[in-house]
Every structure is written in structure tokens, then in C-alpha cells.
Amino acid sequence: MSTTPRLALVTCAELPDLDDEDAPLIPALAERGVTAESVVWDDPAVDWSRYDLTVIRSAWDYAARREEFVAWAGSVPRLVNPPNVVRWNSDKHYLQALEDHGLPVVQTTWLEPDRGYDKRALHNRFPAREDFVIKPAISSGSLDAGRYTATDADSRRYAIEHAKRLLGEGRSVMVQRYLPEVDSHGEIALVFFHGTYSHATRKAAMLTTEEVEAERPREEVMEAYHATPEEIAAGQQALAFARARIPGRSISSRPLAYARVDLVPTNGKSVVMELELIEPSLFASLGRGALDRFADSLVAELRMGPDSNNIDLA
User: Fold this and answer.
1) Is the full-model pTM beyond 0.85?
2) CA nearest to 290, candidates 179, 191, 180
3) Each residue's pLDDT tens digit in the chain (314 positions)?
4) Strands 35-40 and 108-111: what pairing?
5) Phi then psi dihedrals of residue 94, to 5 deg
6) Which residues of 82-96 are buried (b: 16+ CB within 10 A; e: fewer)?
7) Which GO molecular function entries does the Swiss-Prot or TrEMBL record give (predicted)?
8) Which domains are seen in the chain, by residue range?
């Protein structure tokens, strides 16, 4: 590491100065003797070798160019979180891998574009009674997601049209049971730095049956939340499952510098909605001391050097 380490905070062209939640990282790292700056991931003029560490933050346009983004991640000398994590976590099929190994995840039916579903086949793959959600397997936020009512004929018709459009674009589709606890309790987001619990937030329900297929990600409404010991344990279990199953990583790998686990308490257990390991909003402003913990985790990453398990298998 150089005398004055340099750190790149990766963003997208739409947010060249970072998201408001991440911008305070720059002065926080400066207080720790690290020069940090925001850098757009697909800027061809950037020399990534100039940085001792590159940290993905608000690169929220990657979903539409996922393969390009994965290739870029594999070209960066020292990336946090690393390239093999980017490849695995950028396609939500990882939920199937976790479910196959016994982790409680939201019930999902997968529709693949090469199957040639007609309207009847799609209809038969939707739930018969409860609300459900349709969204692409590669997406950012709630973009291209819609909530539908199984017992309403018009709603099912809209759902079929939504699924056919996504499949016609060559995109894998997720059909997920909508958990009513999202409306009554909200989604819980647990944030961890190097495997240690930091803080939690609660997100209000974002999808309604009156609004489907948003053209832009919906704004998240967050509040600070006091997680229960059971919820924290569920988050740690999810990360342990992922740690052992991401290609190129193992239980001997050190925990990721940052991670977010989104879950919903239902029927006495915590069901995992998503693991956010690439560029999650960490809502440091809603956790006392969270910004300092995040900055400290990045300084620790600089000092520890590369993890031998952080390899790209592309």
C-alpha cells in the first residue's frame, strides 16, 4: 500500500458525485489518511491501476449491461466486493442455489426465455390465490417489477403480458409469492461489515397492484430499525451460506467488506428476499456510527491486502 493510499468509489454516469448516502465516505476516509474519489465505472479514460482499492458503490446502471459490468469487474486490480461475487450476485438465480441448500428464501418460480411459453403455460405457472410479483432475474431495485392479484382476471392478463415482454427480451423471469408481511411489517435490511452486524433499516412496501412495471426504480422509503437477535442470526446464516457457495470462495475466505441481507419475518421465521453484495444502499445515515464502521472496514481491507479466495472464475 502506498504512503497515501488512493481509493476509488465506483458510481455510474448518472451519479458522478455518488449517491447522497455515499458522498460522506470521502471525508470520512480522508480523516483516516485515505484519498478517495468518485469514479464512473465505464469511463474509458480511467486508469484503475492508480488505485490501491476500488469499491463498488452507486453503479446502479449495471443491470442493463450485466456482462459488460462483470467483464469490467474482472479487469480491476483490487475490487471490493470482488469479481466472483459480482458475477454470482448480479443474477438472482443465486436464490435457487441457497434454497437448494436449505435456506428459507421467498418462494420463486423461474421462467426461462428458451422455453417458449404460451399464454396458457404462463397462466398455469402463476399462483392460484395470492398476490404475486413478476420481475427479471437481472435487475436493479424495483425496476421492471410488478405486483398482481391472482384472483383478478385483468390482473392476471397484465401479468401474462409483463412476463411475455420480459421473456421476449431474452430475460429470465421470477414469479414470486407476495408476502403480506411486507405490507404489515415491511422489509428488513441488515447491514454487515466484514461479517459483523452494523445496523438495520426497515423499508415500506413499494409495489401495489395499481402500479406495475415502473419504468424507473421506485424511491425507497426507509427508517431506522432495531433488529431482533433472531433476525441478525438469520442474516448471518444467509451470509454463511453464500460464503460457502459463491464460486471461488470458501468458508476460509474472509467475510466481505460490506453486505446487506433483505428479509421478511413470516410464520415465525425470517425469509430471505435478497442478498445485496455488489452495490447496495447501506443507509449509513440511519445507523449510529455506521459511516465510521463502513470507512473502517475499507481501511481494514486496504491493510489486509488481497484475499486469496477473491478470484474471478470468468
Assistant:
1) yes
2) 191
3) 448 999 999 999 999 999 999 999 999 999 999 999 999 999 999 999 999 999 999 999 999 999 999 999 999 999 999 999 999 999 999 999 999 989 999 999 999 999 999 999 999 999 998 899 999 999 987 788 999 999 999 999 999 999 999 999 999 999 999 998 988 888 999 999 999 999 999 987 655 554 454 455 556 678 999 999 999 999 999 999 998 889 988 766 789 999 999 999 988 889 999 999 999 999 999 999 999 999 999 999 999 977 755 544 33
4) unpaired
5) -60, -25
6) bbbbbbbbbbbebbe
7) ligase activity
8) 94-103+181-283 (3.30.470.20), 108-177 (3.30.1490)
| DSSP reduced 3-state for 7 | strand
178: which residues sit within 8 A by CB, 6+ positions away?
Answer: 130, 131, 132, 133, 147, 207
**Distances, alpha carbon 73 to alpha carbons 59, 283, 311, 312, in Å:** 11, 24, 11, 9
